[in-house]
Amino acid sequence: MEVVVGITGASGVIYGIRLLEVLREKGIRTHLIITRAGKITIGYETSYKVSEVEALAHKTYQEDDIAASIASGTYRFDSMVVIPCSMKTLSGIVHGYSDNLLLRAAEVALKEDRKLILVPRETPLSVIHLKNMLKAARAGAIILPAMPAFYTKPKTIGDIVDYVVGRVLDVLGVEHSLYPRWRAD
Question: 27 Cβ partners below 8 Å, 6+ apart?
Fold first, then answer.
């Protein structure tokens, strides 16, 4: 399995970092694009250096590397996850404005009928945001907001992050034990 991971400048870059850690542990090949804003947000929100995040991926790309293999539909990757997904990136995806590699790879995922998971991070949501999410869903993307559940009784921020990342892994079809499954019986 090969997964393209895009990290944008929206708050919540730790979700993308944790996803990369787990995919590496599972032996799943990853291609990483971090936007310029994403690199800045990593510095604001975490103790990670950008180079440490990049080292979690098998292959990293610069945002302006429009000639990268993942920019072509002939390169076979299985899925793409944009985590977190800024509203700017969401807008670029739904309007076909592929002016950088992350947007182009998302366009490839949609046009080649591959799984595209968007993890939006914004609140409150405007009508524009909601319409763009609906457009993305109608185009074939899976909208997976970073909304933790509390039946798992999280004790740390890491537990909350693991729940959201676990839900992404569920959609990717990757087995994990990041959170306990719901059991009412």
Answer: none
Please report how many Cα atoms fall inside a 13 Å half-sphere around the Cα of residue 72, on the Cβ side. 5
**What are φ and ψ of residue 79, in 5° steps?**
-150, 165
Q: Report the distance separating Cα 131 and Cα 126, nearest Å.
A: 9
Summarize pLDDT for 134-184 with one digit per residue, the tens.
999 999 999 999 999 999 999 999 999 999 999 999 999 999 999 988 887
Spell out the alpha helix ranges (H) of 7-126.
13-25, 36-45, 50-54, 87-94, 101-111
CA distance 115 to 61: 20
Into how many domains does the chain fold? 1
Q: Which domain holds residue 23?
A: 2-172
Cis geometry, peptide bond prior to residue 124 (ω within 30 degrees of 0): yes
SS3 of 56, please? coil
The C-alpha angle 76, 109, 49, rounded to 5 degrees, equals 85
* 185 found inside a domain: no
Tell me the pTM: 0.96
